[in-house]
Design brief:
- The chain is 47% helix and 15% strand.
- It contains twelve helices and nine strands.
- The chain has helices at residues 30-40, 44-50, 89-100, 114-124, 140-150, 165-174, 185-197, 205-216, 222-232, 237-244, 248-262, 267-277; strands at residues 5-9, 12-17, 20-22, 80-85, 105-111, 128-132, 156-160, 178-181, 202-203.
- The protein has a six-stranded parallel beta sheet, sandwiched between helices. Strands 1-2-3 form a three-stranded antiparallel beta sheet, with helices on one face.
- Helix 6 links the parallel strand 7 and strand 8.
- Helix 1 packs across helix 8, helix 6 packs across helix 8 (205-216) and helix 10 (237-244) crosses helix 11.
- It is elongated, with a radius of gyration of 20 Å.
- The N and C termini lie far apart (48 Å).
Length: 283
């Protein structure tokens, strides 16, 4: 596989790869990226469905390329069709203005919640969907999972104000091909859209660092996550045992494991760390 240097996006140089620009991870993230790919693409079938950019030849039915490796439009009439999903009308208006300023892009639909995002995607089949993680009715993560299950070639970029490593990990695991923080949209959004439409991935530098942290950390089990959510609600061991129908001693073991995996010494720090990383949310 031959690569050549290209323009800079964020803090990383792009390289030409399979007809489009890609943003390779730094050498320090190589092991983390390989681990993540193995997690997401556990079989050849999954690799073809979820990771076309990493699985050799394009899958059947893949959309016609819009750009050459130099970023030039291949067709004067073909425009990138974008779906914008966010529960804040002002942010959607800003995205609409950004799309209107690009001669090769058009905003085909907007949505204010996760269920509407799924409906609008089914209706319009956009080239790329911009989806916030924190959405009413259906969460952004669930919307991404539903869309990708129904449309395996869907190209989705996550837009969020939260950069916790669990947010990044779950979004990529759900099938998102890009991750942008909302305060970076003006600088990086257009480049990210063009790269993702061509089958590449785009992770903003902070998201790349968070992803590397997440992959390197031991994962909490499903039961440990249940206990952690109840810890975040302020419940003590007896109350957690009652809620989960567990013995007190079992809860103590789970709490001990949670502290060890999060690298903290007490329950308060465990909850604060979980909130920072995006493992739990306060209602």
């Amino acid at each position: 596989m031959r690569m050549r240097e290209g323009p800079l996006i964020g803090q990383f140089a792009l390289v030409a790869h399979k007809g489009g620009w890609r943003n390779p991870a730094a050498e320090a993230l190589a092991k983390a990226t390989a681990t993540l790919d193995a997690t997401i693409c556990q079989s050849a079938r999954h690799r073809a469905a979820l990771c076309p950019a990493l699985s050799g030849p394009p899958t059947p039915g893949r959309r016609e390329p819009l750009y050459t490796s130099e970023g030039n439009a291949m067709s004067a009439t073909r425009r990138i069709r974008v779906l914008a999903v966010d529960d804040h009308p002002l942010l959607r208006a800003g995205l609409a203005a950004t799309m209107a300023a690009q001669p090769d892009m058009t905003l085909v639909a907007e949505a204010g919640d996760g269920q509407e995002a799924i409906d609008r995607f089914r209706e319009h089949r956009p080239d790329v969907a911009l989806i916030d993680l924190r959405l009413p009715v259906v969460s952004g993560l669930e919307a991404i999972r539903t869309i990708r299950a129904e449309f395996p070639d869907a190209r989705i970029i996550v837009l969020t104000s939260f950069e916790g490593d669990e947010n990044v990990f779950q979004a990529i695991q759900a099938g998102a091909r890009g991750f942008l923080l909302k305060d970076q949209l003006r600088k990086e959004l257009i480049d990210a859209i063009r790269l993702v439409v061509e089958g590449g991935r785009y992770l903003a530098p902070p998201a790349t660092a968070r992803l590397a942290e997440r992959v390197a950390m031991p994962a909490l089990s499903a039961r440990e996550m249940d206990v952690l959510r109840l810890l975040a609600r302020g419940l003590n061991n007896k109350e957690i045992a009652y809620e989960l129908s567990l013995a007190d001693g079992t809860v103590r073991i789970h709490v001990s494991n949670i502290l060890a995996k999060l690298g903290v010494e007490d329950r308060v720090r465990a909850v604060l760390t979980a909130l920072r990383r995006g493992l739990v949310e306060l209602d």
